[in-house]
Amino acid sequence: MLMQILAFLLQTVFFMLIAAALLRAWMNWLRINMRGQPGIFVMALTDWIVQPLRRVLPKAVAQSRVDWASVIAAVLLALVYTILWGLLLGALLSVFSGTAVVTLLGFALRMLIRVVLQMAFVLVIGYVILSWVQPGSPVYGLLARLTEPLLAPLRRVIPTIGGVDLSALVLLLLLQIGLMLLG
User: Which of 10, 28, 63, 167 makes the best surface tag, with the fewest CB within 10 Å?
Assistant: First the structure.
């Protein structure tokens, strides 16, 4: 029981940190102002790892449109989570063996993909709910900007039915299928 609680807490903390790093990268990619919420919160959660990475990265990489420091931070956090999870469960027998490294990288990649899918799911759900109850709010505008790159390709393919845009529903189904495939 104690191990389950520790595993849950470890997963929750690292999920939040990885999601914050990825959201920071996504917001920077979309050129969303980080001086408002959730930018302030995301930067507060991730500055401790992103800022040192920015100092280490070459200028050309640091000045590209992709926020590589945030992406690398998310990858590093996923690797640390994987190592800690393996140590907690006693599954990490030898970090230096070839199969352990491949397993470690695979598990970290799986964690990253899961965080991306769940974060997209939450953003789309928030966008859909606010589109019904308060479409004029500033949060709705932010969620619309965050989800538009995900919804736009689907909107080109899926017609509106009775004036209702079903692209968000289709995206939610696809995200859920992706999570099911991850296991």
Answer: 63
Q: What is the DSSP letter of 160?
A: P
Q: Residue 139: which residues within 8 A CB-CB, separation 6 or more?
A: 126, 130
Total tally of structural domains belonging to the chain: 1
Residue 2: pLDDT band with limits 50, 70, 90 = confident
Q: Residue 71: which residues within 8 A CB-CB, separation 6 or more?
A: 21, 22, 25
What is the reported pTM? Answer: 0.91
163: left (phi over 0), alpha (psi -120 to 50) or beta: left
Write out pLDDT tens, residues 41-68.
999 999 999 999 999 988 777 678 899 9
Domain carrying residue 92:
2-182
Q: Which helix (H) or strand (E) holds 29?
A: helix 2-29
